[in-house]
Please model this.
Amino acid sequence: MTGTHVPRQRRHTLYFLEEIRPFSPVFLDTEVDMTRVLEHRAEPAGRRHSVIGYVLHTAARVLVRHPQANVAVRGGVLPKVAPSPGAHAKIALDKTWGGQRVVLSAVLPDLDRADLDEIQDKLEHYRDSDPEQLPQYAGLPLLHKLPRPIAQTAFRRVVRPLGGRAQRMGTFSVTSLGHRAVDGFHSVGGTPVTLGVGRITDRPVVRDGALAIAPTMRLSLAFDHRILDGAEAADILTEVKEGLESFGAGVSAAAPVSAGARAGGAG
Model:
């Protein structure tokens, strides 16, 4: 029996997976009480924001407090890193290209300085656009058609230069399957930190020593062990969890990080 090749439209994903093979991922996860986020989403006078927008908003502010994690990385056993003054988020997009369902990615720059509305504008732009009409994907048809060795070389020439890698690959990734019956999953997005967002569903929790029911979400974090150790990765995941659970209650959850705070990189 003879097999068939992977659809041509998915070749960019294969080149990406080849590029991130040197990564050494370690996986963490936690459960987030999303009560405050859902209350904020339901405010009658406000704009409705997507759940991933809250995660991006919160995670970007956490990442700039951990400058060792908020970097672009390239290389193998002895990787090189380039610090970034802003948090650039890479998101995964479920799209159709040439009639084939594919995953594309987009980098949303400087989200530590963006408010929820600005983040939602970016998400809706990619959600509502035909990717075949967007200029940032103009090179994909050629990448899909070129012979594999030439296409791989072309892909590397675009993504490997360290100076622009943060803008092309992001400094952290967020990917969500929470729109389906997926409680949790772990993904590697080619960045030092990748957050995986599961669905929100009612689960039992303990509050003040009493059993209650609350809307909770599984949140995973994959970190590149070449760049980070587990203790700092655990701090990042905990701070994202705490930021979501207290959303709107304090400056750290609701306000952009100042330029001084970004420069200082205080943990």
Summary: The chain has ten helices and eight strands. The beta strands are 25-33, 71-74, 80-83, 89-97, 100-108, 172-176, 193-207, 210-224.
